[in-house]
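ARCHIVE CARD
Drawer: 12
Card no.: 0347
Subject: one protein chain, sequence and derived structure
Cross-reference: see card 0346
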Amino acid sequence: SKVNKPDAIIQEGCTPNQKVITGTVNDIFFRAQEASISNPAIIIVGDVVHKRFAIEEMTHAVKTVPAIQL
């Protein structure tokens, strides 16, 4: 059912202050309030939310390269 669809909210994505919460359509509002989520944030809805852990494993495997100043 739609109320059980997985959701994620990502606050300040790709920054050191990134905060991610997950839940369902039914409870994501309450989880966001509890975690004090604020803007800027993006909401992800659907099964792609379950891919988060695979993506995190891949990104941790890649070493960061220092920025080149021009």
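Annotation on reverse: The chain is about 25% helix and 25% strand. The mean pLDDT is 83.
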